[in-house]
Each structure stands twice: as structure tokens, then as C-alpha cells.
């Protein structure tokens, strides 16, 4: 029998070049995106009471912080690329880890990038009329979906690949772009809130107004949307392999980034209610920022907020283009994703092929218009997998109690337990109230099982 003399290559690793501010900037950029521009309308419809509406954002922020404490312990314990993929793999086995990575690939990151790219072109149309024209140049019919090439889809695709190019070129350029966009985003929102509350026309009475009763089911349904809007508070954990002194800097990044998002979200929603009574809030069409800007500063203010929205969406696309590929890089390194995705670029020291793979799939979602369906189907999975990941804190403490833990979750066991219980309640409520959508979502997730088996069999062979 002929034996191979090929020397096995060592697992490729990424360079530790990032600090806590970089991690916090990724969280702010990743979280504050299209959700805060559109979802408060849907949330107000389910919770038509201003006090309860604001309380809901506080509850969501508290839950995000509880989750962040769990992720802080896990990321300090296992400072590797991949975030919850690593934690679920370590705590529950490689299949469960793969399923969260699979969901991240098919919808979690690629779908969010595609959606934000479409929103970006929508706002760009305000300044360059016609770029959002969805009239097809041509269409390619294929089974179940069709590829549509239009000015809108071509522009959105260009946005996807522009950020892919930046992040392929190195952590340095990517970090600069992310930090600048995050700072611009935070500054723009804070200035807008300060000007609106101090100089704008509104009513403080709106902050305690009511337009109907709030039910438990409505509150939980709205909490799903709130948590979806907060999703991304764990973004710094995905880049753990590239953070200097991760035992200190990762918990700090998670705490700073999550706290900043909670404060900004509360202020933005206070401004929304200050200008628009809760009963009218649920009827707003389009972007809330535009509607609020017009109400505060006149018709021309929409252009100002158009720029703010473009910066916000660009920051989100940039952050997700950076974060998502770290998951597929980790999966490929374990032999359960496309092998080439485990390669680190020899010059730029980035997971370049993982970035390319994600961008190709984002482009497919843009061109086929499938992102809405996938987002609806697996939206609840973000809460599901985050809850399971935080539950890994308990599993790993019991399994390996003597392992060095540079950071331990503040408030343990209460804070991780609260997050796990709340996540479970949200998921159960989603299954009960919308069984068809969540059922289809579960099918999308479970579709990853045969793919995992296929990759595993290739690795064994």
C-alpha cells in the first residue's frame, strides 16, 4: 500500500490585533441597523401602551446584558474564532455547534447583510433617484426561485462586495472603517436625539399615553422583535481569536458595546414617542427616523436622516461582513465546512475565502429575493441558539470546574439563568403563536443535519 508522505499543515490561526474599543464598535455597528428604523412600528402594534413600550426596551436591554455576561465568560474561557459555534460544540457536541453555524450562514449573517444592502440602496435613491429601480433588466427562472437582475439588485450587490473587498484587505483597514462608521453612527443618533428633545415640537405626555390593553402574548411577541433588534450584542465573541488579552478585553468589549446600544435604543424610542403618540406609532409607513425628522425639523430634515440611515446601514453591513466569516472559518478548520474557508490569506491575514463565500450567498439572496422568507423563518433561531449558548456556561462549569476562567459571569447563576429562561419563553411563544413559520424555520435548521454528515464523512475519509 502506498502511504502518503505529505506533512500535515498546522491549523491556521488569526492575528490578535484588536482591543476592547474595536470589539465594542463591532457590537454597536452590528446591532444598530435597520431594525430600529422599522421594528418599533410593529412593536407598538403589539404593545399599545407607551410605558409598557419603553419598559419592553428596558427588558430587552437587561436580557441582552445578562446574555453578554454569559458570553463574556465563554469567550474568555474559549477565546477562539466562531462565537457560539465554539461554545455549542464544546458543551453539546459538534452537530449542535454545526447547526448554529449553518443557520448563521444561510440566514443569520448573509441574510442580514442582503437585507441591509437593499435598505441601503433604498435610502441612496433619495439622493440618486433611480438606483432603487426594481424593474428587471432580465430574469432567470430556476426551480422554486428566480434570479432577477435589476438596477436595485446590482447596486445592492455592489454594496455587499465593496465591504467584502475592504475586509479581505486586512484587519487594519477593516478596523478603521468599522470604528469610523460606528463613531459616526453613535454621534449622529445622539445629536439627533439631543436636538429633537430640546428644540423639536413634541409632547412629554406621549411618554405615558396608551391606546389599548397589553396582553401577555402581545408582550412576548413584541419581545421577540425587541430581541431581534438587539441581536448582535454578542458580536465581539466571534472575533475572540483576534482580540489582545481576551480574558480582559472581551468582557470589557461586550459590556461597553451592549451598554451603549441599550442607552441609544432607549433614547431613540423616547424620541419616537415624544413626537408620535403610541397609537399613531403603529401606523407609520416607512422609516421612523424620516417621519420623526419631518415632524421635528420640517420636510427637508428627511435628507439629513437619509444620510444618518446610510451611515447606520453601512456600519452594520461592515460589521457583519467582518464577524460572520469567523464562524465559517472555525467550522472549516474543524472539517465541517468548505475546506478552503479555513485558509488565512498569506498577505492580509484574514479569512478571505470565508468572506467570499458569505458574500456569494448574500448576493444570491439579493438576486433571488429569498432573504425575507429566510429571515422570517429563522428569526426565532437567533434567540434559540443564544439561549442554548448561554446555557453552556452551566454545562462547562459542571464539566470542567477547575478550568482557568479569566472572567466569570457577573451575577452567576442568576444572570445566565434569567437569559436562558427568557429565551425559552420567547421561543415557545413563537412556536405556539406562529407554528407554521417557526416550523419552516426548524426545517431550515434541521436541513443542516445531512450536510453535517456529508462534511463529517469527507473528513473521516
Fold and architecture overview:
The protein has 461 residues and is mainly α. It has one domain: Amino acid/polyamine transporter I (Up-down Bundle), CATH 1.20.1740. 70% of the residues lie in helices and 2% in strands. A two-stranded antiparallel sheet has the order 1-2. A hairpin with a 4-residue loop joins strand 1 and strand 2. Helix 3 packs across helix 17, helix 6 (110-124) packs across helix 7 and helix 8 (171-199) packs antiparallel against helix 14. The longest helix is centred in the last third of the chain and has 33 residues, at 301-333. The protein is globular, with a radius of gyration of 22 Å. The relative contact order is 0.21. The model is unreliable at 1-9 (pLDDT under 50).
End-to-end CA span: 16 Å
**Proportion of strand residues:** under 5%
Secondary-structure element pattern, one letter each: HHHHHHEEHHHHHHHHHHHHH
In which order are the strands of the major sheet placed? 1-2
The CATH superfamily bears the name Amino acid/polyamine transporter I
Number of strands: 2
Uncertain runs: 1-9
CATH topology: Amino acid/polyamine transporter I
Rough shape? globular
What's the domain count? 1
The average pLDDT value, as a whole number, equals 87
By DSSP (H or I, 4+ residues per run), the number of helices equals 19
Q: What's the CATH first level?
A: Mainly Alpha
Write the layout of secondary structure elements.
Blueprint: H1 20-31, H2 35-46, H3 50-77, H4 84-92, H5 94-108, H6 110-124, E1 136-141, E2 146-150, H7 151-168, H8 171-199, H9 216-230, H10 235-238, H11 246-275, H12 278-281, H13 288-297, H14 301-333, H15 352-368, H16 371-399, H17 414-433, H18 435-446, H19 448-460
Antiparallel strand pairs: 1-2
Helix pairs in contact: 1-8, 1-11, 1-14, 2-9, 3-9, 3-11, 3-16, 3-17, 4-5, 4-16, 5-14, 5-16, 6-7, 6-14, 6-15, 6-16, 7-14, 7-15, 8-11, 8-14, 9-17, 13-14, 14-15, 16-17, 16-18, 17-18
Amino acid at each position: 500500500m502506498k502511504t502518503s508522505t505529505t506533512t500535515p499543515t498546522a491549523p491556521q490561526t488569526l492575528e490578535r490585533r484588536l482591543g476592547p474599543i474595536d470589539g465594542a464598535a463591532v457590537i454597536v455597528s452590528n446591532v444598530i441597523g435597520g431594525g430600529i428604523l422599522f421594528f418599533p412600528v410593529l412593536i407598538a402594534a403589539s404593545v399599545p401602551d407607551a410605558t409598557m413600550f419603553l419598559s419592553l426596551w428596558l427588558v430587552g436591554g437587561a436580557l441582552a446584558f445578562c446574555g453578554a455576561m454569559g458570553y463574556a465568560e465563554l469567550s474568555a474561557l474559549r477565546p477562539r474564532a466562531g462565537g457560539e459555534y465554539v461554545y455549542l460544540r464544546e458543551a453539546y457536541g459538534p452537530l449542535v455547534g454545526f447547526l448554529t453555524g449553518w443557520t448563521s450562514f444561510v440566514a443569520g449573517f448573509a441574510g442580514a447583510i442582503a437585507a441591509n444592502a437593499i435598505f441601503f440602496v433604498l435610502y441612496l435613491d433619495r439622493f440618486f433617484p433611480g438606483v432603487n429601480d426594481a424593474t428587471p433588466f432580465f430574469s432567470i427562472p430556476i426551480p422554486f426561485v428566480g434570479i432577477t437582475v435589476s438596477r436595485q439588485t446590482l447596486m445592492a450587490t455592489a454594496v455587499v462586495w465593496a465591504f467584502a473587498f475592504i475586509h479581505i484587505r486586512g484587519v487594519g483597514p477593516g478596523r478603521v472603517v468599522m470604528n469610523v462608521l460606528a463613531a459616526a453612527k453613535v454621534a449622529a443618533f445622539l445629536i439627533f436625539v439631543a436636538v429633537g428633545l430640546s428644540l423639536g415640537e413634541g409632547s412629554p405626555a406621549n411618554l405615558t399615553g396608551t391606546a389599548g390593553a397589553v396582553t401577555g402574548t402581545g408582550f412576548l411577541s413584541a419581545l421577540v422583535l425587541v430581541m431581534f433588534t438587539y441581536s448582535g450584542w454578542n458580536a465581539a465573541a466571534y472575533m475572540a481569536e483576534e482580540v489582545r488579552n481576551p480574558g480582559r478585553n472581551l468582557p470589557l468589549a461586550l459590556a461597553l458595546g451592549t451598554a451603549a446600544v441599550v442607552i441609544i435604543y432607549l433614547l431613540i424610542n423616547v424620541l419616537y414617542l415624544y413626537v408620535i403618540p403610541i397609537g399613531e406609532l403603529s401606523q407609520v409607513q416607512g422609516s421612523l427616523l424620516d417621519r420623526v425628522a419631518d415632524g421635528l425639523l420640517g420636510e427637508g430634515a428627511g435628507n439629513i436622516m437619509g444620510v444618518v440611515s446610510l451611515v447606520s446601514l453601512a456600519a452594520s453591513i461592515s460589521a457583519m461582513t467582518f464577524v460572520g466569516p469567523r464562524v465559517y472559518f472555525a467550522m472549516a478548520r474543524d472539517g465541517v465546512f468548505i475546506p478552503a474557508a479555513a485558509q488565512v490569506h498569506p498577505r492580509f491575514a484574514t479569512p478571505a475565502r470565508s468572506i467570499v463565500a458569505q458574500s456569494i450567498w448574500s448576493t444570491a439572496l439579493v438576486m433571488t429575493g429569498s432573504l425575507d422568507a429566510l429571515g422570517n423563518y429563522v428569526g426565532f433561531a437567533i434567540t434559540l441558539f443564544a439561549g442554548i449558548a448561554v446555557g453552556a456556561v452551566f454545562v462547562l462549569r459542571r464539566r470542567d470546574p477547575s478550568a482557568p476562567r479569566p472572567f466569570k459571569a457577573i451575577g452567576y447563576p442568576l444572570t445566565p439563568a434569567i437569559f436562558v429562561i427568557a429565551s425559552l419563553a420567547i421561543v415557545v411563544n413563537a412556536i405556539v403563536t406562529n407554528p407554521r413559520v417557526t416550523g419552516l424555520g426548524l426545517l431550515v435548521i434541521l436541513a443542516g443535519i445531512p450536510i453535517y454528515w456529508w462534511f463529517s464523512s469527507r473528513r473521516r475519509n
